[in-house]
Specification:
- The model has no long low-confidence stretch (mean pLDDT about 95).
- By secondary structure, this protein is an alpha/beta fold.
- It has a single domain, classed as Alpha-Beta Barrel (TIM Barrel), CATH 3.20.20.80.
- The two termini are about 15 Å apart.
- It has 10 helices and 8 strands.
- The longest helix is centred in the middle third of the chain and has 19 residues.
- The chain is about 40% helix and about 15% strand.
- Strands 1-2-3-4-5-6-7-8 form an 8-stranded parallel barrel.
- The protein binds zinc ion.
- Zinc ion binds next to helix 3.
- Zinc ion (ZN) binds next to helix 3.
Amino acid sequence: MDLGVLNNHAKKIDDFDRTFYQVKPVSGISKEPAPGVHNIVSCFGNNELGKKETELCAVGSGEGEQRLWQCICPSAESYRQELKEYILNLSKQEVAGIHLDCIGLPGPSYCSCSRCQKLWQESGLTWEIWRCKTVTDFIGEVKSILPDTMPLSLSLYPDPVHPERFGLDLKSLEQYADFFLVPLYDMTYKSPYWMEVLANAFRRRLTKPLYVEIYMKGPKEKDLLAAVQAVAAHADGLVFAYDTKLSRELLPQIKMAIENARTL
Ligand SMILES: [Zn+2]
């Protein structure tokens, strides 16, 4: 089992197999690349740009929407180019990998802007397939400009069964991703049975490695360990988010919880 941490510090944490760092968060403001670390780039979540250039924002009815940030239209060509250039430059640094976050659309009606409507109609595809293809094609374009040896990983919204909601088709994304990271966040982890259900469902649908992200800031230690145990049998890796100190302190118990999950 690969163990990692995710934080906002541009520093590799030696006790873990991998460190993830948000080099370009949803704020849209990028920071210095972190060497030896998986640098996380928020793709279509960009608050700064969304507020400044509203014509680039994704358009939709709001129905079934799940988002906490400004979403940019995935067909905005200038933005796609800008993003690819940024990622290409990032890959030239001494990073351990490129990790893409916010790759999907905010809900089933997005993006209905005039750019997207035109491209969809020209495609001859169904709305659902066109949306998935738009997202997957972007990931493919990123993959094509990266060095072959540069690991590329993707965050997924934690819904393994409805590609039409966010335009995330696991089967087509798999061809470009070296591994997937699924955030299964909870503020308490009091009843983590749902984590087992989701991790198992992703496991059944993915052939590439599955990493599950666990939120460390808040839940009690025993509940965090119960969360680890709930998903460990289905995951290839676990990533502990936003409390590196606690993650390090709990490492022996975390390893024990993983062992327990394997022997159940
Ligand atoms: Zn659009």
